[in-house]
Amino acid sequence: MVHSTDPEQLLLRVFGLTLLVAGLAELVNASAAVGAFLFGLALTGQVADRTRRVIAPLRDLFATVFFFGIGLSVDPSDIVPVLPVALAVAAAGTATKMATGWFAAARDGAGTWARLRAGSALIARGEFSLVIASLPAAVTYPRLGPFTAAFVIVAAIAGPVIARLVDVVEARARVR
Question: Band of the pLDDT at 58, cuts 50, 70, 90?
Fold first, then answer.
């Protein structure tokens, strides 16, 4: 039913069946997203491999639009009151990610600078998972959306800045 040698036909069939399964999930009072997710799990073999290749650009586009929509749902003025807590949580997260990278790289025999780079590479990772995970809870806890937005902004800025700082400090240390 899904198999097609034509990429456009494959894409249309997969999207059509995804919408059908999502609609059926809604009919039984389940989430359309869960229905679509389960359909994605059900695709296997060559069809799944070809679908992954064909859908990759659209997946990235839809992910971008999804996060844009989440950004629109947060009033920027609601971020200011939760910013101190977001900064504290981001600092704790940064410290634990730096420690994780440090110890993981040490187990692999890496030197000091490689350990620091490993830790700094982890800083801006996983925050978008937090956005997705916080969506249902934001209905019950209205400050969670602004907190999550503030946290993601802080981590998204801190990660590359700290990674670059590690590189600059390492370069200066090597010159001495």
Answer: confident
Nearest to 122 by CA among 142, 141, 104, 143: 104
Angle subtended by helix axes 112-122 and 79-107, to nearest 10: 140
User: Cα angle vertex 135, ends 78, 79, to 5°?
Assistant: 15
Helix, strand, coil percentages (3-state) for the chain, rounded to 5, are 85, 0, 15
Structure tokens, 162 = 């700290």
Nearest to 156 by CA among 77, 67, 60, 69: 67
From CA 137, how far away is CA 144, in angstroms rounded? 7
Residues 6+ apart with CB under 8 A from 92: none
| pLDDT tens digits along 66-89 | 878 878 888 999 999 999 999 999
pTM comes to 0.64
Q: What is the CA radius of gyration of the chain?
A: 21
Q: Cα dihedral sign for 103, 105, 111, 112?
A: negative
Confidence of residue 152 (pLDDT cuts 50, 70, 90): confident
